[in-house]
Design a protein that fits this description.
The complex is a heterodimer of chains A (103) and B (465). By secondary structure, chain A is mostly beta strands. Chain A is built from one helix and nine strands. In chain A, the strands form two sheets. In chain A, strands 3-2-8-6-7 form a five-stranded mixed β-sheet, with helices on one face. Chain A has a three-stranded mixed β-sheet with strand order 5-4-9, with no helix packed on it. Chain A starts with 9 loop residues before the first strand and ends in a 9-residue tail after the last strand. In chain B, 53% of the residues are buried. Chain B folds into three domains: 2-119 and 268-367, FAD/NAD(P)-binding domain (3-Layer(bba) Sandwich); 124-265, 3-Layer(bba) Sandwich (FAD/NAD(P)-binding domain), CATH 3.50.50.60; 379-445, Arc Repressor Mutant, subunit A (Orthogonal Bundle). The longest helix of chain B is centred in the last third of the chain and has 29 residues, at 341-369. Chain B is built from 13 helices and 22 strands. Classes of the chains: A mainly beta (103), B alpha/beta (465). The interface between A and B is large, with 45 and 54 residues.
Amino acid sequence: MENRRVERGVKRGPVFEIEVDGETMLAYEGETIAAVLIAGGRRIFNRSPKINRNRGIYCGIGLCYECVMVVDGIPNRRACRQLATPGCRVESQAGLGPWEGQQ
Amino acid sequence: MKETELLILGAGPAGLAAAIEAVKAGSKVTLVDENPFPGGQIYRQFDRGFKVSDAKVLGRDFGRGQKLLAEFERVRDRVDYFSMSTVWGIFPNNEVTLLLQEQSQRIRFQKLIVAAGAYDRPVPFPGWTLPGVFTAGGAQRLVKTQRVLPGEKILLAGSGPLQLALANQIVDAGGNVEAIAEAGTIENWFRLIHASRGQWQLIADALKYIWGIRRAGIPMLRGHIIVEARGEQQVEEAVIAEVDENWRPKPGRQRTLIVDTVCVGYGFTPSTGITRLAKCEHQYDPLQGGWLPVRGKNMETSNPDIYAAGDCTGIAGSMAAIDEGRIAGIAASCSLEKISPTEADRRAEPSRQRLASRKPLLQVLNEISMPRPGLFELATDDTIVCRCEEIRLREISEVLLQGAVSMNEVKRLTRMGMGNCQGRMCAPALQEIIALQKKMPPADLGSLTPRPPLCPVPLQVLQES
């Protein structure tokens, strides 16, 4: 797997696994979900609600909501703000995401 | 409901400086910020887990931030600090509503200082919604505080000094910058150097950045802008064009670069959602990033209970933000009768002097970064201009032909600005694009009227409030 992590200047904390669309990816404590995905060379985070196009992280600071994903079953989580946690389950979001009572 | 004497929104340079001065003056301070740690975007701290092993590679801003953060640490036990909290409403009875950990919190203030900061000015061009197109600030955050490179082959496109800094940060981190497309011309840099006379540290920084770019062999394409990002699933190439002084592409002067990542930075735009929702008076100034709250010399807005400081009032950078924050913190404490007007003036004087001395340089910096009309002509009929509602420029142009003459009318007729970001990503550029199409001054279009909630809030939280 690609690794775009930079070692210079910092020491990373404990490493753990997360699940992204059924695949296992390695994450370090303090990394956002977006950082984990980008480090692994993945940048398509969701498909847009109306015209079904690929979208990924854009503003990177939590304002644009372009990087939303389904995290542990909850849709519309901003990958650029949400920290990865051991064992968390991340899925690409289709449109507005899965809602209770509707699939 | 929580009550506080002085509420400060934002723990970046302006908010921290305001909190420090207000506590020193004896005010009871509540500080609200959406990040886990104080510092804002520019002095952003690492998340738990990361340990800094060599602060030098993280740049001078990091060091400066540490100094302000250390000053804040000395007063922190006297500040009621809400981290991870996002403001979603402000109401006429001096009440602010927050979203924290999926819960709602209401705070009533006597005085308020808004220090909401700024964000990269979003500019629509064909392909700008493809994965792999980042704002320069977003890419910088990835490199600086997550220590991850945004891609393998990177194009930086934009205007002004952030690009130089970002190029160096990427190179220092071991990444590849294929080229820098800088919209401005070499004359800009001469003007900048001229205006920086006496600010030797700034000149030294700029030279270091330029040397870093030369040493890495990165082509610096002055007078070029990105006109399109292309790719099937994500960015695979970028088209850049040589432009005239109005940033309009010269015929036949295009070329295509094979890149997987584009970082776009045409300066910043102030975050004015809170001051606009509070109905403070605003004016339009393209030089400082768009709509700005009108302020007096004590950083007070048209509402006597509300002050505003830092980049949310016009782009001036972190150094100015610290001084404005100090002045606002002192002035708000004076109006709370914690200190006398004479004492307030005495305390604010050094900050006022520093602000005045930096003004000429700031003027030149803003002139260099200010987008020219060509930038707002890049979007084609098919380009998505409102990302959230996926509105194409064609749909905007149609309602303009039908007679829409204000930002609010366009919003009502197309849903532009009604999505998750509440117009943050589309309104700044559309203000200019629509003005060009209508041949009207941008200010005459008015601004989008913000409504609570300012950001997506779970229904359950609204219900609790």
